[in-house]
Every structure is written in structure tokens, then in C-alpha cells.
Design goal:
TIM Barrel, membrane, NodB homology domain-containing protein, Glyco_hydro/deAcase_b/a-brl, CE4, alpha/beta, 13 helices, 520 residues, 4-stranded mixed beta sheet, 5-stranded parallel beta sheet
Length: 520
């Protein structure tokens, strides 16, 4: 993520922020081909849920008509009030076909991150994933694992819940993938699907495991593909590009609204909306491969000081999502939810049984510092550092986390006691870090399922809660309160399919570095 002082400088200069950061995740053409991939997979041996061949066909042998159309929503870099505002303005008011508010994946790096907001975002049901500590490409293990330690220590994210990774600048290597597998990550999402689904040589594969090597980015990453690297059970979730009128010569991947369409010299929101709809339709009418909105939220932040709100672009993105949600069986999801469905694919008639798509509320009565804003008011520690301030439920460190020391000693104010970090036998919503106790156990922790039935034969298969029109100019900025949290008509929620991972285990907890060693 660009330091805040550079962002402010960009806002005061003649160069827009878009020109400063547009190269972070852009594409200029195909990154793979069938010949370069040299991919071969034995589908008789590679079987779900833990092995899946790279394929353009829906998993589980489903027909496209029986397959949900997933829109994956992700954000990269620091978590701050203005970036949460940016995500809220697209998802806060929406519902999936089962009445659940959409979840998303936040690939989090630590510089300028507010750890308390990370806690709130996670407890609200969103996925927190790894984006290195200091936003470096082809990162060493210390950058990857240090992020795990810091997010666990200062945001209370369970080690087991941080399953995914995206490389900054999408700059990864074979060694990066090996490091992730060694650290027990479930998936990477740094590779591009860079050829349209309408082309015979498309690389728009459904998520797949690396039991037989990679099938994406074969032309852009040295040593990749042709059976390498073999990492059994480790998943790649490709990032699916949009394509303008030039087809394979006109890909747009991250923040496509920053790119000029069709070879033009200026950005045109109408042209962007046109090719986003066209690409979505190609996916929807073919094999229903997912499509993604991969964002750097700063570009569309409605509340960043000194930067003009790009309202027309914001309205265009909402217009796209409005239109997409009018189609049957379209779901806005996180990578975690997508992968849960891929590992156990269900047809439209059985979507009620997919726990990861449901929503449930943890039942918490007392006021504790747990990531639920109405429960933790006044309980967070406020950490004031010259570089950037942040809040946390877990006690302020005596210095900012670094690669060399991702979990600094805690500073204890006069008259207070040290706060207790999250153990492995409790989860964030039920852990009281001030008293150092879980407020319930595996028999007494309870949740309320708030999802509505999704009927067969296409019943109740459109989403709702649409945004403003493309031509309108919305007043005011979105609130930074988590979109499915208190103050927005519902309590903080988490997908029901994640409940087993958040219920209490029987043994004693392990924290900090010991948790990372467990993963290793």
C-alpha cells in the first residue's frame, strides 16, 4: 500500500492517484497458453474435496444451469476507516438470494492498518487473508508468517482462519507457492485467468489444486507449469479478468475502472460498464466460471481527506452489481465461500444445504472487547504511534510490529492489567481479552441462523438491496461500521459453514509463534 503522505501528495499534484497505483495488478495480455501450461491431470485419481483438476467445466459434474454464478469480491492492502467505507458502499445494502448480506475477502497488509477494524470486519463474517507485512512482491517467509503472527496477536484472528494469500503486485514465484504450502495455507489467489472464456485456449479454470502443478501464469512466472510445482491439496483460485471489445488483447484485472477501455486514451465509465457486463454474460452463458471484483479500495474511497470522491465510478460499479443481481442464481461471495462450495459442489436445488453461504449471529450477551461494535464500545485500547495510530482489543504493543518482531511486548497502562491474547481453544466473538476467559464452551456457544430458504426451480434466486443509479450523485459517505454489523439492521454475522472452526476445542490454547509453528 502507498504510504499516506504519498497519497496526500498525489492528491495535491496534477497526477491522479490512479496513475500512481494503476500498475498494481494490471494485465497487458495473456499470461498463459495451453502449450506453455503442458498441463495433464488424472481426474480418476484427483477427486474432491481435497484434489481438483484445472478445468473450465463446473466441479462435481454439474451442468452450467445447475451451477451458481459467483462474483468474488476482494480488497487488498491496509484496513482503515476509509477503505471499509469504500467496501461498504458496494456491499452494505445488498443481499444474496438467501437473504444474507454478501461477504468478501480482505487481503491485509500491516502498514497503516487499524487492527481493531480488522477484528470487527472478521467477526462480521468476512474473510481476512494474508498480503504480507510490508507489501513486498515475491515475499520471503518472514513477511508471510509475520503477518499471521501480528494479525493473530493484535486483531485476534485465529491462525486457522487465515487460509488465503495474495502476492503484492501479483508478484509471486514458484518459491512463494512452496512457502505458502509449507505454512499450511489453503490457497493462493495471485494468478490471472487472462484469456476469455469464449476462446478455445481459455485459462479461466475453476479453482484447482496443485497436485499436478499450475495451469495459469505459465508465460509470466519462471519455472511454473508443465507439472510444477506439485503441492498436493494446495489450491489456486485464479483471478478472472474482464475483457473489452479487443477480446484477448484487452484484459482488465484489478481495479478495471482505472483502465481506459478499447485502446482509448481516457477512462470512460460507460465503456467500462459495457465490457464488465459483456464479460459477465460470457461467463454466465458458458460454464459459469466465477468472475471477480478485485479492488484496491483507496481508489474508490468516499471519505479520504483531500481526495475528490470518484462518485461517477462508484455509481458505475454499483450499477454493474445491480444489473448482475437481477440475473438468476448470482451470489456475491468471498474466496473462502467460493472454495467451500467448490470442494462440495451442490446444484441450485440443494443450495440450502451449503453452510458457507448461510449467515448466523453469535449470541453474546455481555459487553466484551470482541469485534462486535455495540459490545466493545469504550473497551478498545488506543495505540498512538507517530507513523499511524490504531485500536486493538488485545493491548497496545510497545512498538509497531516489524518483520523482525511481529509480536512486540505489550505496554500496560498504569492501573490496568495486561490483556490476554486469543488462545487456540476459543474464537474471537466469544473471547474476553480483558478477563482472559471464553464466555461459553462447546456446549453453550450458540448462533442464530438468519438465512431464508432458497427454493428449487429458480425460486428466490435473485439478490436484492440495489444501489443508486449510474447517473445519480449520492449524498454523504458510507458509514465505517461493518455493513452487516450493529447500526445497519442486523448483528454481526459469520457464515454458518464456518461454525466448526469457531467452536471451542477441548485442549489448551496455543498462541503467537507457537501457533505459526503448528501451521509449519
Amino acid at each position: 500500500m502507498l504510504p499516506l503522505f504519498l497519497l496526500l501528495a498525489a492528491s495535491l499534484s496534477s497526477a491522479p492517484i490512479a496513475s500512481v497505483l494503476a500498475q498494481d495488478g494490471g494485465l497487458s495480455g495473456p499470461t498463459s497458453s495451453g502449450e506453455a501450461a503442458g498441463y495433464s491431470c488424472d481426474s480418476s485419481k484427483c477427486q474432491l474435496p481435497d484434489c481438483h483438476c484445472a478445468s473450465t467445466s463446473p466441479p462435481g459434474g454439474l451442468s452450467p444451469e445447475d451451477t451458481p454464478q459467483f462474483i468474488v469480491f476482494t480488497a487488498d492492502d491496509a484496513v482503515q476507516t476509509y477503505t471499509i467505507d469504500a467496501v461498504n458502499q458496494f456491499l452494505k445494502h445488498r443481499q444474496n438470494p438467501n437473504g444474507c448480506q454478501p461477504k468478501m475477502t480482505y487481503f491485509t497488509s500491516l502498514n497503516y492498518t487499524d487492527f481493531g477494524l480488522v477484528t470487527d470486519w472478521f467477526v462480521a463474517g468476512n474473510e481476512i487473508a494474508d498480503h504480507t507485512m510490508t507489501h513486498v512482491g515475491d515475499p520471503p517467509a518472514e513477511e508471510i508468517n509475520g503477518n499471521l503472527i501480528a494479525l493473530n496477536a493484535l486483531s485476534g484472528i485465529p491462525m486457522s482462519a487465515i487460509q488465503g494469500f495474495r502476492a503484492p503486485f501479483l508478484d509471486f514465484s514458484v518459491d512463494t507457492l512452496k512457502r505458502l504450502a509449507d505454512a499450511s495455507f489453503v490457497y493462493d489467489s495471485s494468478a490471472a485467468a487472462s484469456v476469455p472464456v469464449t476462446e478455445d485456449d481459455t485459462d479461466a479454470f475453476w479453482p484447482y489444486t496443485l497436485d499436478y502443478g499450475m495451469a495459469n501464469n505459465c508465460l509470466s512466472v519462471s519455472g511454473l507449469c508443465k507439472g510444477e510445482p506439485k503441492l498436493p491439496g494446495f489450491w489456486e483460485i485464479p483471478m478472472y479478468a474482464f475483457f473489452d471489445k479487443r477480446g484477448v488483447a484487452g484484459p482488465h484485472l484489478m481495479d478495471p475502472w482505472l483502465d481506459a477501455a478499447n485502446g482509448d486514451s481516457k477512462v470512460d465509465d460507460e465503456a467500462t460498464l459495457e465490457y464488465m457486463k459483456s464479460t459477465f454474460t460470457d461467463h454466465y452463458k458458458n460454464n459459469r466460471q466465477p468472475i471477480g471484483l478485485y479492488t484496491h479500495p483507496i481508489h474508490v474511497a468516499p471519505s479520504y481527506p483531500g481526495v475528490k470522491t470518484p462518485q461517477k465510478t462508484i455509481d458505475m460499479i454499483n450499477a454493474f452489481l445491480d444489473w448482475a443481481q437481477e440475473q438468476q442464481n448470482v451470489w456475491i461471495v468471498s474466496n473462502e465461500q467460493l472454495l467451500a462450495w467448490v470442494r462440495d459442489p451442490k446444484p441450485v436445488s440443494e443450495l440450502d444445504s451449503v453452510g458457507a453461504l448461510k449467515c448466523s449471529t453469535p449470541a453474546v450477551d455481555q459487553n466484551i472487547c470482541n469485534g462486535m461494535p455495540e459490545k466493545e464500545e469504550g473497551l478498545q485500547s488506543k495505540c498512538t504511534f507517530d507513523e499511524y495510530p490504531f485500536s486493538t482489543c488485545y493491548g497496545c504493543p510497545d512498538q509497531l510490529p516489524t518483520v523482525a518482531n511481529p509480536n512486540p511486548n505489550q505496554t500496560v497502562p498504569d492501573g490496568e492489567s495486561a490483556r490476554f491474547r486469543l488462545p487456540a481453544n476459543c474464537t474471537t466473538a466469544f473471547w474476553d481479552p480483558i478477563e482472559g476467559e471464553c464466555i461459553c464452551n462447546s456446549d453453550t456457544c450458540s448462533f442464530q441462523d438468519t438465512s431464508k430458504p432458497v427454493g428449487p426451480n429458480g425460486a428466490n434466486l435473485t439478490g436484492g438491496g440495489l444501489g443508486g443509479s449510474f447517473t445519480s450523485s449520492a449524498d454523504g459517505a458510507a458509514s465505517s461500521t461493518p455493513f452487516n454489523g450493529p447500526g445497519n439492521g442486523a448483528q454481526a454475522m459469520m457464515p454458518a459453514g464456518l461454525l466448526p472452526s469457531v467452536l471451542l476445542a477441548l485442549g489448551a490454547g496455543l498462541v503467537g509463534m507457537l501457533g505459526v509453528l503448528n501451521r509449519l
